[in-house]
Design goal:
Largest sheet: 3 strands, antiparallel
Oligomer: single chain
Shape: globular
Strand order of the largest sheet: 1-3-2
Order of helices and strands: HHEHHEEHH
Strand content: 5-15%
Mean pLDDT: 90
Structural class: mainly alpha
Number of helices: 6
Low-confidence stretches: 1-11
Distance between the termini: 52 Å
Number of strands: 3
Helix content: 55-70%
């Protein structure tokens, strides 16, 4: 949602109704959901298609049931993930990205793939940093 008003900290010459740099801006909470470790990995995994809870938990290696459940609820509330509960016995629940979630995931995956491709540089930098701290 764009507005004619200026926005502190938004940069890039775009004016938006929301400013993530403002303490009370609701966009800050959504940014936390999207860029937190489990949110980013969950959105990235769901970019590959529809998953049931346990399939998604296996795909996002290391996430606990509780954290995945909380993450999915937050992303669903933000309109990024769709939860489809089938009235079967036992119940079947599928998770998929909404159109907005797909757009967010694509942007995240660009960053994820960039970081994967530059990890040699990151690891080298870490090594140099650690060497200066040991000496």
């Amino acid at each position: 949602m764009e507005t004619a008003g200026g926005t502190a900290g938004s940069g890039g010459g775009q004016d938006f109704a929301y400013d993530v740099f403002a303490r009370n801006c609701p966009s800050r909470r959504t940014l936390e959901h999207v860029t937190g470790r489990w949110g980013a990995l969950t959105l990235g995994a769901l970019h590959d298609g529809t998953f049931r809870f346990n399939e998604l938990r296996r795909r996002v290696d290391g996430v606990s049931e509780k954290m995945l459940s909380q993450t999915l609820q937050a992303l669903e509330r933000d309109g990024l993930v769709h939860r489809d509960a089938q009235p079967t016995n036992p119940p079947r629940v599928d998770y998929t990205l909404t159109p907005l979630g797909r757009e967010v995931a694509e942007r995240l995956l660009t960053l994820i793939h960039f970081m994967e491709g530059r990890m040699d540089d990151v690891l080298e930098s870490r090594e140099r940093y650690d060497e200066t701290r040991r000496g």
